Amino acid sequence: MQTRPRPYHHGDLRAALLARAEETLRGKGTAALSLRELARALGASHNAPSRHFKDKQALLDALALSGYERMTDVIRTSQADAGESSGRKLEAVVRAYVGFCMENAALLGLMYSIKHDPQASADLLEATGRWSELIDRLMLEGQRQGEVREGPLDSIGIPVFAALHGYADLAATGMLTPEAAERGLDEVIAFILRGCAPDSRA
């Protein structure tokens, strides 16, 4: 008697659950997520997911953590060919962040909702800080190069993040068409760079 082949390799159930959960999240939202249904879809026993996630919330936490890790990798990778100018590096960050948000709108919503949950895990909070630390280092480097105005990082970084995240949210939630989002991105980048420039208060 032949057994039905399972759509995941032995030992990779956790990764398979996360991948299938993200597909469900993208298509149907968090309400449609169920560990039992994910196990059934993957050909695993109904209690197999409990070896990796104690409940649905643990699965959502893991999805959010994975999202922050991937976003940080995307932003870090964007710096490889950006050159030495902090302005060019910041432009690359903006494009990478907005691109990630547009491609992962449902995941992004989950990431930020869980980030602000009082029960958010230490691992998740640490992951949320990694990508903002990349921007902080970029701002410090820009100050050393004379391309970013002097002052506390918060006074520079918060307006940058507000413009960056606000625009990314408009684009990711469909309030802008893809064409309008692409055209507007150049203007947002110019706006951010002007806000960071040493003579921006003149």
Q: If you had to describe this structure to a student in words, what would you say it looks like?
A:
This protein is mostly helical and 202 residues long. It has 8 helices and no strands. Helix 3 (56-78) packs across helix 5 (105-115), helix 4 (86-103) packs parallel to helix 7 (153-172) and helix 7 (153-172) runs antiparallel to helix 8. It is elongated and about 60 Å long.
Pattern of helices and strands: HHHHHHHH
* Largest β sheet strand count, sense and barrel closure: none
Overall form = elongated
| Class from secondary-structure proportions | mainly alpha
Portion in helices: 55-70%
State the helix count. 8
- Our measurement of the CA-to-CA distance between the termini, rounded to an integer number of angstroms, reads 80 Å
**Averaged pLDDT:** 86
Tell me how many strands there are.
0
Which regions contain 5 or more consecutive residues with pLDDT less than 50?
1-6
Q: What is the percentage of strand-forming residues?
A: under 5%
Supply Rg: 20 Å
Keywords:
202 residues, disordered N terminus
Q: How is this fold's topology laid out?
A:
Layout: H1 13-28, H2 35-42, H3 56-78, H4 86-103, H5 105-115, H6 122-145, H7 153-172, H8 178-196
Helix pairs in contact: 1-2, 3-4, 3-5, 3-6, 4-6, 4-7, 7-8
